[in-house]
Write a structure and sequence with these properties.
Blueprint (H helix, E strand, L loop, with lengths): L3 H15 L4 H68 L8 H8 L6 H13 L8 E2 L5 E3 L2 H16 L3 H14 L4 H9 L4 H12 L7 H9 L5 H13 L9 H26 L1
Antiparallel strand pairs: 1-2
Helix pairs in contact: 2-4, 2-11, 3-4, 3-5, 4-6, 5-6, 5-10, 8-9, 8-10
């Protein structure tokens, strides 16, 4: 085998490799690095400018939005409470007779006192019993009346279905007005993602220490008018009443609570104006 030509070729490659220099590559790499560093600095400054602009915009929005929420929310809250007081007085009662139940229903929740006050006046007109509610100094309840149960039940169902307090109150006031639960109201709850028949069945089984009540049983009882308002409200409060306070853990609930607090501030100024007018 003759390897002379191969050896000569390798020699030529070796000689050529010895003449190769990477200095200019290193120089160019350094220039690119410097340019990228400069560009990176510019981009960083631009990014920080964007953040600063965004924060300023948030600040400007807050400066205009907060007073607006205080003014509009406060006026609306004061008007609703004023109307509720008027309705309650027209029914021969005083605001002080229901204020504790209303506070109990929405305290710590994402819902406002004014919405509960409106519901309370309508429930009163439908004959829902009240007057035996007592709350201890530490916030625990000594005795409940039907009004407190119903108002907190509305809070719970509203939180569970992610609906407004007023929307849920309309279902409860309809049941109270009819004196019994009807299939239409069960369907309204179902449309909002809550199976009211199952909730009532679970409640009846628990309080009666039995397992005979099923969804089908409850629906049959509803069709025969055997589920009165008090049973309906107690079942909903038992299942979801305490859960209403957990609505603050959601973003929607937290924002609603913030708006409610702003409205409470606004009401301080709006109420005297309304009374004077």
């Amino acid at each position: 085998l003759d390897f002379n030509s191969s050896v000569r070729s390798m020699d030529e490659i070796t000689k050529a490799a010895n003449k190769v220099t990477l200095d200019h590559i290193a120089d160019n790499a350094e220039k690119v690095t410097n340019r990228l560093t400069t560009l990176g600095g510019m981009l960083k400054l631009k990014f920080l400018d964007k953040i600063a602009d965004g924060m300023l915009n948030i600040g400007k929005t807050a400066l205009t939005a907060v007073p607006r929420m205080i003014a509009h929310g406060g006026w609306s809250r004061a008007m609703n409470i004023e109307n509720a007081k008027f309705q309650i007085k027209g029914l021969g009662h005083d605001w002080s007779e229901l204020s504790e139940q209303i506070n109990y229903a929405v305290s710590g929740t994402a819902y406002g006192l004014d919405a509960a006050a409106s519901a309370a006046s309508q429930l009163m007109a439908s004959g829902v019993k009240f007057g035996s509610f007592k709350q201890r100094a530490d916030g625990t309840v000594e005795s409940l009346d039907d009004m407190a149960v119903a108002l907190r039940a509305i809070s719970g169902v509203a939180a569970m279905t992610n609906q407004s307090y007023g929307d849920m109150a309309s279902i409860f006031t309809t049941v109270a007005g009819n004196g019994r639960l009807m299939s239409e109201q069960l369907n309204q709850l179902s449309y909002r993602g809550l199976n009211g028949a199952v909730t009532i069945a679970d409640y009846l089984n628990r309080v009666n220490h039995t397992s005979q009540y099923t969804e089908a049983t409850v629906r049959e009882m509803v069709s025969k008018g055997k589920i009165d308002f008090a049973t309906f409200a107690k079942a909903m409060d038992d299942a979801f009443g305490e859960h209403a306070k957990d609505a603050n853990k959601t973003l929607t609930g937290a924002l609603s609570n913030i708006r409610a607090q702003y409205s409470k501030i606004g009401e301080i100024f709006a109420s005297p104006i309304i009374q004077n007018l």
